[in-house]
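Write out the 3D structure for:
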Amino acid sequence: MIVRRSTEHDFAVILSIINDAARAYQGIIPADRWHEPYMPKDELTKEIQDGVVFWVAEDDGGITGVMGIQDKGDVALVRHAYVVPTTQRSGIGTTLLRHIEGFVKKPILIGTWATASWAIKFYRRNGFNLVSQSEKDRLLRKYWSIPTRQIETSVVLASRAWLDPASQQTATRNT
């Protein structure tokens, strides 16, 4: 398996993987937050225009997973992390996450649905920790552009660099 930065030629495959894998949320997240497709083409285009850079895991010439990273100045956000459903639980998500952690030199934050227990377990298993409710609300309002209803039904997980009081980013994270 190789991990590489996506190209414009990967757009349709990325969109397909996101929408196929996101079906796991149907019936899990609040019904008023589910829509089909989960991510329309124009929304993915906007995410890329807003600075989300996608990395893809490729095996035998086919893309098996995607993970976006968005630089927000003092932090980086993991955005839209999905693995082809038939290849989940085979290390692809961990490989993508480790790759991103290898080049991002600032705290990483991840937002996901509060009821997506599998996603929360995955990130916790990989060294991320849930932030408090009040911190979650503040972070989602500061770094994400999502509706209030989504803030109410989400959680934020943070890398060790965010949670470590000795980290040099501590001074800037409280702004």
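Strands lie at 2-5, 52-59, 62-71, 76-83, 108-113, 129-130, 154-158.
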